[in-house]
Amino acid sequence: MSAIAFSMAVQAGEVSTSPVGYIRSANPVRIATINDQLMEGVAGMNNVRNDWHQADIIAALRKRGTTLAAVSRESGLSSSTLANTLSRPWPKGEWIIANYLEIHPSEIWPSRYFDSNGQLIKRTTRKVSN
């Protein structure tokens, strides 16, 4: 059943959404209203995008004809250094990878740049001691 057909069936009172499946309803308007409220809540939770999976980042680099180790070496780093960026925040490494993929690092790691409300996270760097 398509989403439109299902929506029309809910409005007609033929079915309603329920954790246990499709059931007939005596009050389709009330159930449709409750369902709409629930879906609005779910939609609000989806404002935060997920970070790319490590394999997706590596695959994107492979599609560009290179490897994470090669990008790391081209940047003057040890071949395994950029791998740290895949598992923990490191702005310099994030920018190196993102620049190679020609996108902003927040596209790859939104959780490192935006909080759960979609607000920009202030990221500071440590001061170098003299």
UniProtKB/TrEMBL annotation:
Keywords: DNA-binding, Transcription, Transcription regulation
Keyword match Transcription regulation: yes
Family per record: Belongs to the ner transcriptional regulatory family.
InterPro entries, A to Z: Lambda_DNA-bd_dom_sf, Ner_HTH_dom
Keyword DNA-binding: yes
GO molecular function, one term: DNA binding
Superkingdom per UniProt: Bacteria
UniProt-listed SUPFAM superfamilies: lambda repressor-like DNA-binding domains (SSF47413)
Stated name of the protein: Transcriptional activator of maltose metabolism (Modular protein)
Ner winged helix-turn-helix DNA-binding domain segment(s): 51-124
Organism: Xenorhabdus bovienii str. Intermedium
